[in-house]
Amino acid sequence: MIKVGDKLPAGKLQEFIEVEGNGCSLGPNTFDVEQITAGKKIAIFGLPGAYTPTCSAKHVPGYVEKFDALKQAGIDEIWCVSVNDAFVMGAWGRDQHTAGKVRMMADGSADFTKATGLTLDLTARGMGLRSNRYSMLVVDGVVKSLNIEGPGKFEVSDAGTMLAQAKQLLG
Q1: What CA–CA distances, in Å, run from 7 to 1, 27, 91?
Q2: How far is it, in rounded angstroms, from Cα 13 to Cα 107?
Q3: Catalytic positions (predicted)?
Q4: Catalytic residue positions?
Q5: Which of 10, 61, 80, 146 is most buried by a 10 A CB count?
Q6: What is the domain partition of the chain in residue ranges?
């Protein structure tokens, strides 16, 4: 499992792009994790799935709400990573009003999630292999803080915890 001090694993994530430009076409675009983390400070949070209760009611809204404070603390980008396809993540992002604040990054085949070791097997609940609920502060591709939730919990991966860590580690 990934830990503080580790470099993020090589891999690709997809993001549904709403407006064509900056070298991105409309629809799903694939991004190389190493390339898009280079030289940036990124707050990444992972969660079990789009449209699920805690994810939709608390996790994503918290990061949208604290966007300005996280930017002021030195965060360049905020990513939400989930084992869903880019179309679902794009639609969920529209519903959650994440545009310009949180990048909704799809890990459709769970390759990135498997590489981090942050998987959650929800097969018994009909959801298959998913991402555990977590947050991490990544600087230039290296994990500086990592907060992994216990089963069924939402206590340490929230935006408030990330904001406090960003202020401490980047301030």
Answers
A1: 12, 29, 30
A2: 6
A3: 55 (cysteine sulfenic acid (-soh) intermediate)
A4: 55
A5: 80
A6: 12-170
CB atoms within 10 A of CB 17: 16
Longest dimension (CA), the chain: 43
Q: Which residues contact 143 (CB under 8 A, 6 or more apart)?
A: 2, 3, 4, 5, 6, 7, 8, 136, 137
- Contact status, residue 84 vs residue 47, Cβ threshold 8 Å: no
Q: What is the architecture of the domain spanning 12-170?
A: 3-Layer(aba) Sandwich (3.40)
pTM: 0.94
Burial class (CB in 10 A: 0-12, 13-18, 19+), 107: buried
The per-residue pLDDT for range 23-76, each reduced to its tens digit, is 666 679 999 999 999 999 999 999 999 998 898 999 999 999 999 999 999 999
Taking the C-alpha atoms of residue 46 and residue 133, their distance in angstroms, rounded to an integer, is 5
For 167, the enclosing helix (H) or strand (E) is helix 159-170
Spatial separation of the C-alpha atoms in residues 123 and 149, rounded to whole Å: 19
